[in-house]
Amino acid sequence: SSKHKAQHGFQFYNAAITEKVHRRSQLENDLRKVLAKKQLQLFYQPQVYLESGQVSGAEALLRWNHPSKEFVSPEEFIPVLESTGLIVSVGRWVARQALMQLKQWREQGLNLPRIAINVSAIQLQKDDLSSFLIETLKELDLTPADLEIEITESVFIDNDVIPKVLQEMHDFGFYLALDDFGTGYSSLSYLTRLPFNKIKLDRTFVNDVQTKASSEAMAKSLIALAKTLGFEVIAEGVEDSQQYAFLNDQGCDEAQGYFIGRPVASEQFIEQIEQFYKLNESKSFKSNQAG
Ligand code: C2E
Ligand code: MG
Ligand code: MG
Ligand code: MG
Predict the structure, then answer these.
(1) Per-residue pLDDT, 3
(2) Which of 143, 160, 171, 237 has the smallest number of Cβ neighbours within 10 A?
(3) Which N-terminal stretch is annotated as signal sequence (predicted)?
(4) Closest ligand 1 atom, CA of 200?
(5) How far apart are CA 78 and CA 9, in angstroms?
(6) What is the DSSP string of 40-74?
(7) What is the ipTM of this complex?
């Protein structure tokens, strides 16, 4: 039995790995109950056009209100959802919830060009997500241009299925963004072989632009490369006014990060945007170039 196998293999594990495996199966059990018990919630983080400071979109980020009140990061529970296949139903829930929120905000008068959701390569392989999205958009009276799909590179997306699915989504008119660009599995050849509209410059480059010459050079070059190839570029992890000004000067299109606003529950989103607009009115942080 699998129990027997696990016991037999025990001697090969060190304590840390055993702890990790145990926690993973605990999380898996908890996650199976999650959809039924409504423990999932979406937070929303604003994205803005650097030049105007106007909101360009909002990224929906999954939060798990674990019954123990312990904070469990998506970095930890998303992989468990992926390996169990639960990501398919959770992912559909995320898409539908985010689109309903977009519709509601617009009805409240917020000028929000689009909403962004994260989709992992596993979802593209295991689910007919395009059909689900098309149906949901029709039902809510929205269009594919209202939705941006951020492809997270937790696995190689360089297989047979993924390029076809992405092309199909692109042809439908969905906006495709390559998340965490410059790290992990991402490869420069994706840029020319897959139909992305936008790249999201990973926050590791953004965070150190003032302090590390190498990060500044990387950020500059990656923005220039992406712009030359005709992509829109959004920088993630923008935490202060200097980073914002630097990116604006480099011709980066959009920004997202704590400087503009943190991921918040939907009820706090509009208030947070208004605070950023007030700061933006002063224009004091907009450019390094003396004016
Ligand atoms: P991501 O898509 O790259 O999302 C950006 C992450 O950076 C978020 O972490 C966000 O809270 C964080 N962040 C935003 N601005 C700043 C900043 O200025 N400084 C710093 N230090 N961090 C910032 P979060 O919410 O913990 O999500 C982690 C990852 O989990 C996401 O990375 C995404 O890959 C994944 N994820 C989240 N929600 C979903 C989902 O609904 N579906 C899927 N498939 N993956 C998701
Ligand atoms: Mg993302
Ligand atoms: Mg990212
Ligand atoms: Mg990430």
Answers:
(1) 45
(2) 160
(3) none
(4) 3
(5) 26
(6) EEEEEEEEEETTT--EEEEEEEEEE--TT-----H
(7) 0.98
